[in-house]
Amino acid sequence: MTIASTQATQHGFAPLAIARIKGAQRANKLAVYMLYVAMVAFILFGTIASIKMFHDNTLLYWLYFKLPYLLIALTIPITLYNAFIIYRYRLSQTSMVIMTIGVSALVLIGGLIFADTAWLGLSCWLGVAFLFKSNFKRFFDFLAAEQAATPTVEQ
Question: What is the mean pLDDT of the chain?
C-alpha cells in the first residue's frame, strides 16, 4: 500500500492540496485587503487633494495618484499565484481562468504601450481578485457541505 492511498481525502482532494488551496485563499484575502486600502486611499487622498489649500502638495498628489496604482500592482503576483492554484486544482473552469488573466494582462499591457495609461488595466486586476475570492469561498462551502452530509463512522 502506498503512502498516497493511505492518506484521507476530502472529496478526492489530498490534505496537501487542501493546505495549498487554503494558503492561496489566505494570500487572496491579503490581496483583497490591499485592494480595499487602494480604494480608500484613492477616495481619501483625492478628497483631500481637491481642497484648494492642498492643490500644490506633491506628497498628497502622489498618495492620491500613485499609491492606489502601486497597491493594485503589488496584488498582481498574488493573483497570478492564485490563478495557478485555481487552474491546477480545477476550482473554476479553465477558460474562465485563462480569460480573466488574459484580458487583464492584455488591457494592462495595451494601455501602457498604446494609451500611456494603466488605470483600465489595473481596474481589470481588481475584478480578478474578487472573482478568485468567490471561487475559494464556493470551494470551501462545497467541502463543508460534503463533510456535513457524510455520516461519520466511529471505530
Answer: 89
The set of cell numbers assigned to 66 is 500613485
Place of cell 489649500: 53
* Amino acid identity at 139: F
* Cα three-residue angle 25-31-36, rounded to 5 degrees: 125
**Average pLDDT value for residue range 51-68:** 90
Provide the b/e sequence for 84-112 (b: ≥16 CB within 10 Å). Answer: ebbbeeebbeeeebeebbeebbebbeebe
* Residue with the three cell numbers 478568485: 132
Task: Name the phi and psi angles at 44, rounded to 5.
Answer: -65, -55
Dihedrals φ, ψ of 10, to 5°?
Answer: -110, 105
